[in-house]
Task: structure prediction
Amino acid sequence: MGIIVSKNNDENSRLNQRITADLRERAQKEMRGSDPDLVEDSDYAKDLKKSGNYAWVWAVLVVLAIISLVVIVLI
Result:
């Protein structure tokens, strides 16, 4: 009885390994030459621009606003 169960487990593990290898091979074939996260293909990112040269100005304004709020609260 134990030999039959062991033989079935061995056959199942071989089958699982073959299926896993086949699926891995198919996935690698599909991923070649494609964008894995699909960000460039999405519709919402089509017309977006990268931040300009003056994006640092917004960061400075936010920091100044936070400093102003802290000073107002403390006085």
